[in-house]
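Deliverable D4.2, example record:
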Amino acid sequence: MEVIKHFIDSITEKGLVPNINLDRPNYVQPEDRIQFRAMRLLIILGKLTTNNGLSKEIIACVDFLLRNEHFQTKFILEYYAEKKIY
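Output generated by the structure prediction step:
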């Protein structure tokens, strides 16, 4: 607590007034934009569609992997763990 008081005192000595604004701006994550979602779905439907179509589970799974890079790597490593790559 002493460090914070010292920090505030050093700011006020310079003639500045500390002001804390807790109002958050309205920020929309890129993956929440409708155009971003639509492009992901077009990629999924364009590349993975079979003669029998796709299930909601497959679309949701691939969409999740497209959104989350960390899980892409984990999925690929686990999927190909026991398969030999020539």
